């Protein structure tokens, strides 16, 4: 999945589904926490220019993609979890729909033109303020290759999935939830497994 | 629905589901568009301190709330659409789940303790980079009153709904989608009506 650096104003980098790395508290820029006029929540404000750094939850969009009875997985070329396998997914961009975002990520990570047929699950990871919208999709043709964020892309039957080398808990959840509704045309989307918060 | 000002770094205010107001391009703060090192998309950067203002889609969470065969609606006290009726909904905050956010908004706007049973719809308004997750909920007791963002709160039968005074297109969509699956226990969540983009 995507590792575009996020989003705390250049002072802290929170990777997708995972680690947080301090990139250096600057001596300039938004660095003072206060409640702006007319607001009720503390925000990070720049004391020089009064720029307000609003922070909001981030949306991840992705898909469990199948070709026949096989699953499309991508081996990550980048941290976090470089060398581990994931479904194509990443941060939703401005001015796109979740569906368009999930299709874009499949192109970026696997050069795969996918067809989406249902919303499989919405996972939420409050610790990192992330909501993941994961779709059920298929690959009309077995055409794919590694994109810039992948070193390898492959199709795996259920028994061939490298379960010990899966990048993120949500990938486990999504693959298992897919199996539960395989062949069903209408279903309510799944949420986090009971008690699971996505902590790595 | 919420009108917390959003989120373009203090330079532009995009109201929920609606209007954009320029609040003044400053001579300081993030104001230069450039592609940061290691990135592929132009961001608004502060030329003094190199602060990067990442912008991402915003999530709105809310609910169609019923008590018996009646719908809970709130009359907005604030712009945009002051004096018009809405379902309780607003921006999701950091470190909450979509469910918790929808419950919080019902408290804030209608002092209503709701019970959520299903995801009704996901609407997307790419023009303003907004995704709305609207749930189906009920009010166990008919206890409610106007919160700070409402001048009035009421229960309306379907025929009593003030259709000419509904605040936003997505409120129309949500109420109609609710009716389509009334009494159904499992269904796939709706998306935008065919061709509808949420433009006011």
UniProtKB/TrEMBL annotation, chains A, B:
InterPro entries: NUDIX_hydrolase-like_dom_sf, NUDIX_hydrolase_CS, NUDIX_hydrolase_dom, Nudix_N
Top-level lineage group: Bacteria
Keyword set includes Metal-binding: no
The species this protein was found in: Aestuariispira insulae
CDD domains: NUDIX_Hydrolase (cd04511)
Cofactor(s) required for function per UniProt: Mg(2+)
Gene3D superfamilies listed in its UniProt record: 2.20.70.10, Nucleoside Triphosphate Pyrophosphohydrolase (3.90.79.10)
TM regions (residue ranges): none
GO molecular function: hydrolase activity
Name assigned to this protein: ADP-ribose pyrophosphatase YjhB (NUDIX family)
Domain spans labelled Nudix hydrolase: 56-179
Start and end residues of each stretch annotated as Disordered: 1-35
One Pfam family recorded for the sequence: NUDIX
Database matches in SUPFAM superfamilies: Nudix
Keywords, sorted A to Z: Hydrolase
């Amino acid at each position: 999945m995507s590792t575009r650096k996020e989003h705390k104003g250049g002072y802290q980098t929170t990777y997708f589904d995972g680690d947080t790395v301090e990139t250096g508290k600057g001596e300039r820029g938004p660095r003072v926490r206060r409640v702006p006029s007319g607001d009720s929540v503390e925000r990070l404000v720049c004391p020089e220019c009064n720029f307000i750094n609003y922070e909001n939850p981030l949306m991840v969009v992705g898909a469990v993609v199948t070709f026949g009875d096989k699953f499309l997985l991508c081996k990550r070329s980048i941290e976090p979890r470089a060398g581990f396998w994931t479904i194509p997914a990443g941060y939703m961009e401005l001015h796109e729909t979740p569906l368009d975002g999930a299709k874009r990520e499949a192109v970026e990570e696997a050069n795969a033109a996918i067809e989406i047929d249902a919303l499989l699950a919405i996972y939420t990871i409050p610790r990192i303020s992330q909501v993941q919208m994961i779709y059920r999709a298929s690959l009309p043709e077995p055409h794919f290759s590694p994109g810039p964020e992948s070193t390898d892309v492959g199709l795996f039957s259920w028994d061939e999935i490298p379960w010990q080398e899966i990048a993120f808990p949500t990938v486990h959840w999504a693959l298992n939830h897919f199996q539960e509704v395989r062949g069903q045309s209408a279903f309510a989307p799944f949420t986090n497994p009971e008690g699971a918060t996505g902590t790595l």
